[in-house]
Specification:
The chain is α+β, with helices and mostly antiparallel strands. The chain has one helix and six strands; from the N terminus they run E-E-E-E-E-E-H. Strands 1, 2, 3, 4, 5 and 6 form a six-stranded antiparallel beta sheet that branches.
Length: 79
């Protein structure tokens, strides 16, 4: 996720055009949602259910990020 097109967005930036999946809730109150562009542009989104802010990048980049988190490669970000 080091490309210049990585962005973090807030409400008002085409939030309505994102096709969000059903939120995934882990232990506690941590609920995440994943979405894709409604226009098929290849963008993917990760956000929480408690906020309208989200992170966006290509679907491949977010897939790699999720795999790294699951493998423990991003544990330093959780401290």
């Amino acid at each position: 996720m080091s490309t210049p097109e990585n962005t973090t967005s807030t409400p008002g930036t085409a939030f309505e055009d994102i096709a969000w999946a059903v939120p995934f809730c882990s232990e506690g109150a941590n609920c995440f949602r994943f979405g894709r562009d409604g226009d098929g542009d290849g963008r993917a989104y990760i956000g929480t259910t408690g906020s309208a802010a989200y992170v966006t990048d290509s679907a491949e980049a977010l897939r790699a990020l999720i795999a790294a988190v699951k493998a423990g490669a991003a544990d330093h970000l959780l401290a």
